[in-house]
Specification:
alpha/beta, D-Maltodextrin-Binding Protein, domain 2, five-stranded mixed sheet, 11 strands
């Protein structure tokens, strides 16, 4: 190598110097442009896709965060509702968009870690084709019961369920939802037989339990207000720990160690997004999660808790949940096509 350089310098010294200068210049321009990209982002409005029609929990959450994100990013943040195919439409549109940071997705855990087990054909793989940006909130699933059901505790419910013939019915917000699978996991651990009655969303399912059409269900923010008003009973919580909102209500894990279902909503981007843009988005979202106004508005929704994780924790949680729900879906025989 030294001999080659020596010969090159003797025969064409100017050529080698020019070549080295060209390489240095190219590197400098690349670094400058990378820095300029981060400094300029965003230079136009950012679109956040929401997989539900206006009014749902995910849509409400997106609109709560969009205002603060706009302040922190210095550009308008626009909510774009894209309902369809149990969230798969919004996943596909996001994954196939330009990974420039101008198209994002707010999605619940079920859309990312459960849907791949439910559908034999999907346009994209949400676990592989979407980049986790940040968690936003967790939802405490509550096992709620109609007040006419003669029970006072979780054990009372199990006793009635074991004696019921035909089986005690339970509502869910839809086949394959985390609400549905939470009850299927409980059925297995408690060795009880329950009959699943799926509804199209949290609103219809909650109306069914309020009317007594179905006596029990796992619910999130759709049931929290009715529990506080005394129209429904809170029997147990599905999360890791007791909730400040229901301090006297036990968790499922207190009866069946390891039985825990934490549902969450997070922000995703297309795979391939630049690291500096991704970091800028994460920092803006973290600032929003620490904003007092945002925290108050989240609390007012009911059933939602701010949920901040590191990038590595978020990615690991997705992998863990994906592996957890696969066997449950298979055992329940749930398929949506």
């Amino acid at each position: 190598m030294k001999q080659i350089l020596s010969i090159a310098l003797k025969k064409r010294p100017g050529f080698l110097v020019q070549h080295i200068c060209a390489i240095v210049y190219t590197l400098c321009v690349s670094f400058f442009l990378a820095g300029a990209c981060c400094a300029q982002y965003p230079s136009k409005p950012v679109r956040i896709m929401v997989p539900n029609p206006p009014g749902g929990a995910t849509d409400t959450l997106g609109r709560i965060f969009s205002t603060k994100l706009s302040d922190f990013l210095g550009q308008a943040v626009v909510i774009d509702n894209k309902p369809g195919s149990n969230g798969n439409l919004s996943s596909e549109l996001t994954a196939k968009s330009n990974p420039d940071g101008y198209t994002l997705l707010i999605a619940p855990d079920s859309q990312i870690v459960i849907n791949p087990h439910l559908y034999s054909k999907m346009g994209v793989d949400p676990v592989k084709d979407l980049q986790p940006v940040s968690t936003l909130v967790s939802t405490q699933l509550v096992l709620a019961a109609n007040t006419s059901l003669p029970i006072k505790s979780f054990n009372d419910l199990l006793e009635i369920a074991r004696l019921a013939n035909p089986p005690l019915a339970y509502a869910s917000i839809g086949n394959g939802s985390s609400h549905h699978l939470a009850m299927e996991m409980l059925k297995t651990r408690a060795s009880v037989n329950l009959m699943h009655v799926p509804y199209k969303g949290g609103g219809p399912a909650t109306m069914a339990i309020l009317s007594g059409e179905v006596p029990i269900m796992f619910g999130g923010n759709s049931v929290s207000g009715h529990i506080k008003s005394g129209k429904l009973k809170a029997i147990a919580l599905a999360g890791k720990r007791r909730s400040p909102s229901y301090p006297d209500v036990p968790t499922l894990g207190e009866f069946y160690p390891g039985l825990e279902i934490t549902t969450w909503i997070g922000v995703f981007a297309p795979k391939g997004i630049a690291a500096d843009v991704l970091l800028k988005l994460r920092l803006a979202i973290q600032k929003s999660l620490n904003d007092a106004d945002i925290l108050d508005r989240i609390k007012a929704v009911g059933g939602l808790d701010p949920f901040a994780t590191s990038a590595d924790e978020f990615s690991e949680m997705i992998k863990t949940d994906f592996l957890k729900y696969g066997p449950v879906v298979k055992a329940a025989g749930v398929k949506v096509d």
